[in-house]
Each structure stands twice: as structure tokens, then as C-alpha cells.
Amino acid sequence: MCNQYSLLMEKIKEALSDDLLGKIVSIRGWVYRIRSSGKITFIVMRDSTGIIQCIASSENLNDEQMKEISSLTIESSIELSGKLRKEPRAVTGYEISLQSYKIYERNENFPIAKDLGEEFLLDNRHLWLRSREFTAVLKIRSTVFKAFADYFYKEDYYQVQAPMFVSTATEGGSSLFNVDYFGEKVNLTQSSQFYLETLIYSLEKVFTIAPSFRAEKSRTRRHLTEYWHAEGEAAWYSNEDMMADEEKMIKYIIDEVLKNNLEDLEIIKRDINKIKNIKIPFERIKYKDLIEKSKEFGMNLKYGDDLGADEEYGIMVHFDNPIFVTDYPESLKTFYHRPDPDNPGEILCHDLLAPEGYGEVLGGGERIYDLQQLLDRIKENNLNPEDYYWYVDLRKYGSIPHSGFGLGLDRLVMWICGLSNVRETIPYPRTIRRVKP
Ligand code: 4AD
């Protein structure tokens, strides 16, 4: 019986190897599938690295052991040892012929099965997320988070952290979550941008990965109330400089996923060519030109219309590569965006829209750095400059041109994985109707 924690165990992925053929391998994990036929029991075992078929027969096990093994249920936890052999009919081409085992826990009845309702699966998210597909998505997500940070470290950005309890809104009051903070009304942050802006005066180029909170009552396939926001801010950067860094970052993340997660992409049946063929530079299209172009797609948009999930879908199903939409009208964006001095009414900003109908994954642009211009925009938006005193101060002491962006990491994972709802990208999605488990 291999019942020592210290015993050398193979991860399943390592066991799937010609080098170990004919040798005794030991693995531990969970029963993924089990089927008995007469005197033989087939168990497909899973761990974090993969799945492998194991076969229990009376050749190696006595009657009592055979009974115990055949009565195992899905998601029971066990460790086992046996000889490795090739088996073309087995799910991953290899099979362990079971010789000894230890059961850690035997399930009564694992509640997750095929064809269960959406709500049931969401209530049981803590169990559902063990599925192979979810595991694959979470591995891709892990690569995306790491690659984002790696890219910006390579480009000499510093990673910084901003607070989540805040007293100002960056993206308008309608999507603020209020929190009772020892009797004072504060908010959960919508974006770390303003804090990143304070940090470029010492570090020049900074990024952060943090949650952002939006109380929008949007029930679309791409809205979460709590999402993961990757934001960057760079001193001396123009709108164009920022886009140049961003497109390289997106390409780098995709290349890292292709390098590290091919198997995972296969498990979730992603058409790999859709992301393999992504090319930089991304096309830049002015908002006003996009409105014109949308007519070719039979859409009825006019200048000044906001592009929501439906409109962006209607446009982006016609694209295979992301596009930057630039120069939005001032009326569509929040107060901190820098107006274009050469084109009154337009701002120096961009949204990155992902292809295949996915739409906006990132928004960014130049920030106002002139003191009076910022004060005017704050007032025009019926905000109180005193609430923003620290943000305004930045325009009084060594103000400089600068740009930044915010990338919705959940939306990026959704697009890279080709998923139909952003909820499928995050272990515990927070939406209007759900804060459990
Ligand atoms: O366009 P947004 O609102 O921009 C900002 O918050 C800026 N302050 C960011 C910055 O410049 N530092 O949000 C940026 C991105 C969007 O493009 C989208 O991908 C994502 O955040 N996002 C959401 N993702 C999931 N659920 C939501 N409710 C989201 N709202 C925005």
C-alpha cells in the first residue's frame, strides 16, 4: 500500500510517457470516470495536469479490493500505483494496471452531472469548476495574468497597488457601489487610473492588476459587477504611443497562451487559427469613420451614438483582427480624457475592440494635463473639484502629458478562449443577481 505522503508520486502528465513503460508509477488525484464490466473496472483518474486510464482486475487485486474499487464514485480521492503500459483504446493512450491503492475519501453522490440547469451549476460553482473545461480556462487565465505583468516588466513599467475603498468616481456616478465605511459613505473603486496617474511622477511607467467594481445594471454576456482590471499609465506618452505598447502586449499575451496552453485550447475546442492569425499593428479607425462603415453592415448608427455590447457585436463579427477605435466624441467619454486640440469635440482616446463579435476589451487615451481645462471639465460634468483635489494637484505640480489604459482581463480571456459569456472565465463570477458561493 503506498500510503506515505513522502512517497514519490508522478503527476499524470509525467506518467504519460514512453520512458516509464513497464515501470511502476504512482499517481494521486480524483476519479474522473469509472465503469465496471464484469471482472474489470476502468477508472479514469485526473489531477491538475491531465487524465489517465487505470484498470483494476483480479490479476493484481483480491476480491475485497476489487469490490472496493468498483464501488468508487466520481470525484472520490485516491492514490494508486501500478505498471504503465500503452493502450491505444485508452483516452490518453496509456493505462496503469492497478496494483495497490489508498482511498482518501469516497463520495456519496457528486452533484454535478451533464445537462443540469445554469442556476444549479452556478450555485455549485465550487464543485463545477473542477471540470476539465473549466480547469483549461483557468490555466489559460493564469497565463494571461502572468503574461500581462511580464510584458510590462520587460518594458520597464513598475507594478503598483491602489486602494479599493475610494472617495471619488472615475467612470461616472451611476455605476458606483456605495459602502458604509465607519459611518462615512465611500465607494468601491471603478478603476485604479487616478492613483496610477499620481504614481507616474515618481515611477514614470506603472501598471496594476486589481479588481474594479461596477454597479451597472447591465445584464450582458460581458458584464461583471466585480472584474479584473489590468491598468497602465505612462509619463510622456501620447495616445499613439500608448496604443503601440498595448498592441504588442496583446500579441505577447496571445503568443504566451499559444506557447503554454495548446492542450487547454484543444480541451475547450477553441479554433486556434482565430488567435494564431492575430497580427499587429491593429487597424486604427476613427469613431466617425466606424459609424460610416457600420452602414456597410446594415446598421443604423449615427454620430454621437454610444457603442454598447450589441453595436460592437454587430460591427466586430465582420473582423478577424482587433481594431482600435479612436477619437470618440467628447460626450461619450468621462471628464479626464484630453480633447484633441486639432479637432474640437473629439478626444484623444481609443477603445480596443476584439474580433469575432467580442467588442471592447480595453479603453485608454491621453489625460488632460492642463489645470484649467481639467477644472472646466470637472465642472461641466457637475462634479465637485474639491472631491478631486488630489487629482487636480497633479496638474499644479510638474504636470506632463501622459496616457494610460484599462484592460478587462476577464473579457480578454473570454475572447482568447472563444467563450460565450464572461462568467465562464472567472471562478466566482459576481453579477447583478449573484454573490454566492
Ligand atoms: O472603459 P473603462 O470603463 O475604462 C476605465 O475604467 C479607465 N479608467 C481605464 C483606464 O484608462 N485606466 O474600463 C476599461 C475596461 C473595458 O474596456 C472593459 O474591458 C473592462 O474594463 N470592463 C469590464 N469588464 C467586465 N465587466 C464590466 N462591468 C466591465 N466594465 C469595464
UniProtKB/TrEMBL annotation:
Keyword Protein biosynthesis: yes
Record carries keyword ATP-binding: yes
Domain annotation Aminoacyl-transfer RNA synthetases class-II family profile: ranges: 138-437
Top-level taxon: Archaea
Key words, A-Z: Aminoacyl-tRNA synthetase, ATP-binding, Ligase, Nucleotide-binding, Protein biosynthesis
Any one Gene Ontology molecular-function term assigned to this protein's record: ATP binding
Database matches in SUPFAM superfamilies: Class II aaRS and biotin synthetases (SSF55681), Nucleic acid-binding proteins (SSF50249)
Biological process (GO), any one: asparaginyl-tRNA aminoacylation
Enzyme type, top EC level: ligase
EC code(s) of this entry: 6.1.1.22
Annotated InterPro entries: Aa-tRNA-synt_II, aa-tRNA-synth_II, aa-tRNA-synth_II/BPL/LPL, Asn-tRNA-ligase, Asp/Asn-tRNA-synth_IIb, NA-bd_OB-fold, NA-bd_OB_tRNA
Similarity section: Belongs to the class-II aminoacyl-tRNA synthetase family.
Listed name of the protein: Asparagine--tRNA ligase
